[in-house]
Amino acid sequence: MKCFTLSDRRRVKSCSLDVHPTEKALVVQYEVEATIVGELGDPVVGERKECQKMIRLKSLNAHTDTSSLARKVVEECRLIHPSKLREVEQLLFYLQNRKHSNDSQEKKRVSPRDFAPYAGVELDEEASINSIDEYVELLYEDVQEKIRGATLIFHLARNPDNLEELMQNEMALGALARVLREDWKQSVDLATTITHVFFCFSSFSQFHGLVTHFKIGALCMNIIEHELKRFDLWQEELQKKKKTGDKSSENQNLKKEHEKSFRKYQSLLSKQEQLLKVALCLLLNLAEDTHTELKMRNKNIVHMLVKILDREDEELLLVVVSFLKKLSIFMENKNDMAETFAVEKLARLVPCEHEDLLSTTLRLLLNLSFDTLLRSQMVQAGLVPKLSSLLADEGQRQLSMCILYHISVDDRFKSMFADTDCIPQLMKMVFDSAEEKMDVELISLCINLAANKSNAQVICQGNGLKMLMKRAVKLKDVLVMKMIRNLSQHNGPTKSLFLDHVGDLAAQISEEEAEEFVIECLGTLANLTIADLDWALVLKEYNLVSYLKDRLKPGCSAEDDLILEVVIMIGTVSMDDSCAAMLAKSGIIPALIELLNAQQKDDEFVCQIIYVFYQMVFNKTTRDVIVKDTQAPAYLIDLMHDNNAEIRKVCENTLDIIAEYDEEWGKKIQTEKFRWYNGQWLEMVENRLMDEAGEPFLYGEDGESFIGNADIMERPDLFYSADGIISADGAISPEFYTDFQNGELGPTGYMSSVSEHFVPADRPVSAYGFRPDEQFFYNYSTASR
């Protein structure tokens, strides 16, 4: 029988190059043609396979010589033909200049190749997919053989091309799952290696069902929980030996024993952290399914992760923080992080030298910063100065600024920024942007900070305000003007700086300018309650009276926001008597009353219009117009008992001034106050009298009350009139005060009971029997009919 000698020939064909979409790497795609030929050179079997190789370029940066690096890549990679040198150089140049945005980085799952090799997977032999059955048999031997068999299978699983074939071998995967479930406590190396195998499968979504089928996720949760308990025991034991060594400082043997225990602890800790890292990565991949993630939360995954934040291994911390970041988008998980004080532990990682860990930590903090309680924890943990220092780092600036913005939303924390270098850095960024459009996060943070008086003083230092005004007016920048408006609200030296810019602001108030920009300019001017400012001159020079009046006309096309700012502006300038008179002559007061009718449901409008009246009643000319020529006092009386406390307050103050200067309106106002404070009591008197048995004279034959629907205030005969206290016309007799002060009203019962509870000996009651600021009291037991 003739024997044939077979040989294997492999050739690489059709090689193409491209760049990796997210990493600094070249991707080489090629086709391998494998042909088995016989003894005579005839092909017996032929097969083609498409392959891919990634060339990572970790040293590539902005200063790298791409020509030299291209030659090195071509020399070391045999798959790339020398003729492609020019193409490689162009691809490297593209990678060198490609911008990576923190916000647009593609979210990627942790890859098996992201792990550095550890001692448990180092072997001298090379694994082969054809020997898989032999590796499975090793899983039935002792622990060391099990580790060897699992390691060989892991080497196969590291290559994604082998995963499909391994998945078909259910016996191998079943054996691995069984060994992990039964023997993981016996050997950390064995548990780590087998977990690595399943982790390789978990890196691809199509294999998640396989990992779930063997319940590897639940097993990993148990492993993590157990390892955390072991860590606590190690810590306790180490502390005991340390204390013993400290007490017996002269005993060298105890010191050596402690040092030996510490070295052992470090070795165990290193292996444990490797196991925790791969187990958490596997769970992180499986958490892609929200149902699976919920199961993890129910097993306290958040508490476990927060506990691991105390570790020092940066790679492990990166996995933990990444996991927490993914979990933080759900409220329940966020609340768990608040309960476990995760922010306090995260604060120690800011800043850190590990760039990926720092970036991921900031992203997690950004997610958490939407919660008020967690923002408070961030401030308490000292994150404001730390984040402020990161503004100088271009790579982390955007994230730091967003977190600081969220913190600045809370008025309690705004003042803390004044003690850091945050504001000077922000101002430098604003001025460096020249005529370019600023990042919305930058100007938003500045607007919030400008609302605090201490921050405003820092912002306006030097030429700060002047530079901001210059940019706002030149570029018609609404957001910068909004920041200036916030600066203008603070009394003291900051507000005085605006005297130099009143003309610039007033010049912007015209129909030609954009409405949004005019609103901010008007708001800024309205804040300038400065005694030295001649508002009459400003109104005349820039013809503002006609502009203000036109905005108040019915049917005006202006937005409500602009009209409201016009009303506020009128209130500010009305503090000047000459301005108030000028506005009154122009007919603005009737326009305000008409606007009050139209906007009576809007509390802000109502309050600001009433404030204008309040300012104007101080001046005789405008007061006469308001009192004699308009129905403004009647509107104020109607609003005196409004539900809004601020409206009530301004109304009462305005009416008090009107009552002081006009006797007729004073009586009306006094009567209305009497009605309001005593109406409830009088209503109760009427109801009680009607309910009393044996008094049919209150009702007619048909049962209808003789009072009918008349106003009870017009029936003084219903008032208590014991022994001449109240006369028939409802007025209190002069003898009342004398009898009251002499204590002669006791037998009547009613007033004596009231005076005992409300009226001090040195203060007489008011004309109505009660002071308006005192609560009504009625004593059923002592009152007499």
Automatic annotation (TrEMBL):
Pfam families, A to Z: KAP (PF05804)
Alphabetically, the GO molecular function entries are: kinesin binding
GO BP term, example = cilium organization
Supply the InterPro entries for this chain: ARM-like (IPR011989), ARM-type_fold (IPR016024), Armadillo (IPR000225), KAP3 (IPR008658)
Highest taxon of the source? Eukaryota
| CC per GO annotation | axoneme; ciliary transition zone; kinesin II complex
Q: Entry's SMART domains?
A: ARM, KAP
| SUPFAM superfamilies for the chain | ARM repeat
Q: Record's PANTHER family?
A: KINESIN-ASSOCIATED PROTEIN 3 (PTHR15605:SF2), KINESIN-ASSOCIATED PROTEINS (PTHR15605)
Name of the protein described by the UniProt record: Kinesin-associated protein 3a
- Gene behind the chain: kifap3a
